[in-house]
């Protein structure tokens, strides 16, 4: 089992390190006032190391929070290396002007402890702690649960990351509602992710409540036209109302016209997700029908992605190779090659049936070995994951999902009951 907390950290706008997943974003791993040295969150006996230890033993790191976590993967090895942090996700702003249907609500944002904008002073001091402790950070992802561009000091935050970690890979995610400016990316962004889930106001605005389709398109156009710009990724989350073949064909046409480097489709289990495109195989078939040339497709299954991550972890242990690769990438990213057309990628925000079944098999193994607590906590995880999307997707039926898992789920529940009350 693997979870991002083992080798990734999420720094919220109020300066706290919290757990990576939405389910755990209230779970504080390290408070700015708790210690004068924020890098202690990543020390060998700290919360990340403890999460790795629990996962290796087949348990969830936190029996109260983890059962609802979408990020827990049933495959992979929890590798904790106190010298290398794979990703630091940074939340420049906990605020947003949109009300996307499966994102934080205004009440949830108001309930957050202030400040709601990350201060460059707090960020720089945190990074100094990491740098002094000799911890390498491979990737910075400026995103979080709010809109980064609402923080007027965003360029200063990015500049601080680039100054202390010159070889890091830096991404910035935005909803593209503001006016594009080179100043956003000049401080050192490698990849700019713009959220645009639709091909017109009606297919876009249904999820991105309060958002303007034309603002997001103008932002993408300006970013793609900026000669100093970075790798521009159009992120397109697949919902029921924007994933018909006609939508995909139009999105591809627009991506070519605008000249983005990549259009990345996100298969999700949050919001009213697409029921026609739920797997990589279905996405691949739909894109081909929509007229996307096969040479542009870079779609991978979860299996290949896990394999690639394992390889990436192994490579990242060799500092010199990583530095050389980063430098080469930075030099190459402006060299045009290939077809000149955007590539088409895929990302996931989901727990699919295969993963749920893996958790059930793992629970069965625990039960057979007499580890009832572990078996029970994994079953609780399955139930939470299956139940959770109901809030943002009224058409979703958890009963149908549990039913489709069939006998293995039912028989495990019965065996557990028998073990607990013989
Ligand atoms: C909370 S947003 C913050 C950044 C920015 N405001 C945005 O919308 O891109 C962080 C990431 O969550 C993604 N996201 C939002 N709703 C999602 C959903 N229903 N499923 C999967 N990803 C989602 C966004 O596209 C973005 O990449
Ligand atoms: S599995 Fe638990 S510790 Fe790991 S990211 Fe999810 S909530 Fe956090
Ligand atoms: S734009 Fe981003 S942060 Fe704002 S509500 Fe939508 S997903 Fe959340």
Task: Provide an overview of this structure.
- With 422 residues, this protein is an alpha/beta fold.
- The protein has 2 domains: 4-349, pyruvate-formate lyase- activating enzyme, CATH 3.80.30; 353-420.
- 40% of the residues lie in helices and 13% in strands.
- It is built from 15 helices and 10 strands.
- A 10-stranded mixed β-sheet has the order 3-2-1-4-5-6-7-8-9-10, sandwiched between helices.
- Strand 8 (231-237), helix 8 and strand 9 (262-268) form a beta-alpha-beta unit.
- Helix 3 (120-132) packs parallel to helix 4 (154-164) and helix 12 packs antiparallel against helix 13.
- It starts with 7 loop residues before the first strand and ends with a helix.
- The mean pLDDT is 89.
- It binds S-adenosylmethionine and iron/sulfur cluster (2 copies).
């Amino acid at each position: 089992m693997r979870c991002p907390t083992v080798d990734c950290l999420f720094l919220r706008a109020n300066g706290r390190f919290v757990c990576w997943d939405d389910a755990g974003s209230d779970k504080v791993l390290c408070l700015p006032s708790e210690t004068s040295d924020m890098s202690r969150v990543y020390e060998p006996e700290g919360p990340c190391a403890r999460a790795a230890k629990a996962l290796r033993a087949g348990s969830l790191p936190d029996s109260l929070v983890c059962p609802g976590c979408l990020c827990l993967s049933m495959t992979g090895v929890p590798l904790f290396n106190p010298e290398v942090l794979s990703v630091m996700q940074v939340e420049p702003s906990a605020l947003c002007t949109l009300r996307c249907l499966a994102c934080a609500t205004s009440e949830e944002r108001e309930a957050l402890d202030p400040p709601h904008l990350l201060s460059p002073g707090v960020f720089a001091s945190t990074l100094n702690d990491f740098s002094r402790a000799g911890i390498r950070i491979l990737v910075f992802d400026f995103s979080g649960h709010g809109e980064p561009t609402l923080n007027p000091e965003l360029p200063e935050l990015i500049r601080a990351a680039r100054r202390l970690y010159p070889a890091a890979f830096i991404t910035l995610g935005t909803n593209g509602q503001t006016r594009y400016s080179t100043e956003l990316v000049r401080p050192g962004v490698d990849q700019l992710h713009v959220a645009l889930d639709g091909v017109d106001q009606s297919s876009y605005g249904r999820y991105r409540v309060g958002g303007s389709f034309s603002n997001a398109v103008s932002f993408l156009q300006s970013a793609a036209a900026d000669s100093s710009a970075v790798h521009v990724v159009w992120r397109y989350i697949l919902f029921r109302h924007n994933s018909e073949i006609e939508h995909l064909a139009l999105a591809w046409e627009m991506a070519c016209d605008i000249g983005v480097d990549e259009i990345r489709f996100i298969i999700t289990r949050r919001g009213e997700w697409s029921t026609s495109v739920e797997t990589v195989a279905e996405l691949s078939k739909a894109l081909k029908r929509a007229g996307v040339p096969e040479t542009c497709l870079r779609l991978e299954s979860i299996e290949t992605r896990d394999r690639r991550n394992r390889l990436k972890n192994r490579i990242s242990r060799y500092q010199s190779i990583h530095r050389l690769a980063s430098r080469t990438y930075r030099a190459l990213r402006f060299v045009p090659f290939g077809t000149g057309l955007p590539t088409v990628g895929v990302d996931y925000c989901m727990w699919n049936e295969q993963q749920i079944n893996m958790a059930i098999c793992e629970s069965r193994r625990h039960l057979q070995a007499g580890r009832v607590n572990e078996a029970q906590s994994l079953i609780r995880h399955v139930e939470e994951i299956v139940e959770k999307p109901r809030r943002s997707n009224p058409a979703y039926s958890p009963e149908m999902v549990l039913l489709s898992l069939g006998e293995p789920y039912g028989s495990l529940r019965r065996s557990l009951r028998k073990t607990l009350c013989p």
